[in-house]
Amino acid sequence: MTEATARPAPARPSAADAEKDASMIKQKQMMVTHFDRLADAPETGRKVCSTFVPGNLNELVMCFDLLNNLPEVNAIQSGLRRKSGAYVLEAEKQGHSDDVCTYVKSDIGMMAKGNIGPNGRKLPDPNVLLLSYTGCFTFLKWFELLREQYKCPTIMMHTPYQGDGKITPNMVQYMVRQLKETVIPKLEEVSGVKFDIDRLREYLRKSAAAEDDLVAVLQSAKHKPSPIDAYFGGIYYIGPIFGAFRGTDDAIEYYRFLRAEVEERIRKGEGPVTPEGPMQDQRYRLVVEGPPNYTSFRQFWKMRSLPMRVDMLCNYIEEYEADGLLINSIKSCNSFSAGQLLIMREVERRTGKPAAFVETDLVDPRYFSPANVKNRLESYFQMVEQKRSGARRKEAVA
Fold first, then answer.
1. Structure confidence by residue, pLDDT tens digits, 205-263
2. What is the pTM of this model?
3. Domains of the chain (ranges plus CATH)?
4. How far, in whole angstroms, is CA 20 from its chain's centroid?
5. Distance (Å, rounded) from C-alpha 314 to C-alpha 43?
6. How many Å apart are CA 88 and CA 82, to the nearest integer?
7. Which candidate among 9, 72, 197, 235 keeps its CA 20 to 30 Å from the CA of 363?
8. What is the pLDDT at residue 18?
9. Is the dihedral of CA 278, 357, 100, 309 positive or negative?
């Protein structure tokens, strides 16, 4: 959920003068430490596990003293640093199609150009690939490419699809069997560390503590004015718990710090911090589906199972008293973008609130058109105003 204004944005700031709140600076320091730890792995002797954000098993990975390297996070970092465009082109030169997920192409291109991380240092080759497969078929193909590149052991843990949103006993048994028979034995073999379930329980306890504070932060958007922008700012907020800090004391400390920061803004009646400074005038409240375009993250920031997703979006619109729905469809992510027009129409029908549809991409700058996005959003906000005016007229007549 996000709040936005329709006022013309000031000139775009450079990376140096874009405003950040203290929690963003703190998280940046955490990420620097993590990437330095990865770059130091060949000298320190630490072994590395490459895995993905969805179904992130960092608590389990840490039980074997493995460092977590996340190709998706690397692609996002490349996008934010405006390097992903060259990486995508490099992957396409190698024969990868225009329609392939740009996370994949950014990662492949990054490897081809030396696999240099955001700290300017080479990322280590993984000792093991761990795929917790949660529904995106592209991840399977991505892992095949990584396995071909690194020639290291590969582990796959498949998560059953919850078509009706329910977890059955058979699903649980299926997951447990994979852990006991395949995932844990292979991680023990690669790492040389024996699995300790009490160690796992402690890491899970720490994740739960961090998540409690994160949930409180995200739900703070119910306040008016909202102290957070849960779409763009939320990308920062979820970073540690969705990445390499699950189950750590660092995550607990970060989210406690973030929650205190947000609660202070609530106390003062302040809005969120944006690249141009604090957001003072909050005119619209929108529920947004679809990740942002990371290569134009700040510029985009300034402008603003299908049945399960429809239910969730409708609930958010009601719970957060939103003016409508904005869908950012991702050009290269067919699995996520499929059905979004149907979602949009169904949400409009059920809530009576207007919806809008824009298309960008994850980390490919060729598919971000500021003018097109801006024009669509301006038209959408006019529609929101018309809906508001119509509602006011009905109230006056009643």
1. 999 999 999 999 999 999 999 999 887 788 888 889 988 999 999 999 999 999 999 99
2. 0.78
3. 35-193 (3.40.50.11890), 196-282 (no CATH), 284-398 (3.40.50.11900)
4. 19
5. 51
6. 11
7. 9
8. 54
9. positive
What span, in angstroms and rounded, lies between the C-alpha atoms of 218 and 202?
Answer: 25
Kindly compute the dihedral angle of the four CA atoms of residues 39, 44, 49, 54, in this order, to the nearest 10 degrees.
Answer: -60
First CA to last CA distance, the chain: 31
Residue 182 CA to residue 153 CA, distance in Å, equals 12
Residue 277 pLDDT > 80: no
Among 29, 45, 79, 55, CA closest to 298: 79
Distance between CA 15 and CA 80 in Å, rounded?
A: 10
pLDDT of 223 reads 92
SS3 of the chain: helix, strand, coil, percent, to 5: 55, 10, 30
CB 104 within 8 A of CB 96: yes
Q: Give, as one character, the DSSP assignment of residue 163.
A: T
What the block records as the tokens of 388 is: 């508001």
| pLDDT, mean of residues 290-297 | 59
Which of 245, 232, 202, 218 is closest to 53 using CA atoms? Answer: 245
Task: Find how far residue 199's CA is from the centre of its chain.
Answer: 27
Kindly state the tokens that stand for 338: 């499929």
Torsion angle defined by CA atoms of residues 322, 324, 329 and 333, in that order, rounded to the nearest 10 degrees: 50
Q: Collapsing DSSP states into helix, strand and coil, what is residue 312? A: helix
Q: Which residues of 76-109 are buried (b: 16+ CB within 10 A; e: fewer)?
A: bbbbbeebbbebbebbbeeebeeebbbbbbbbbb
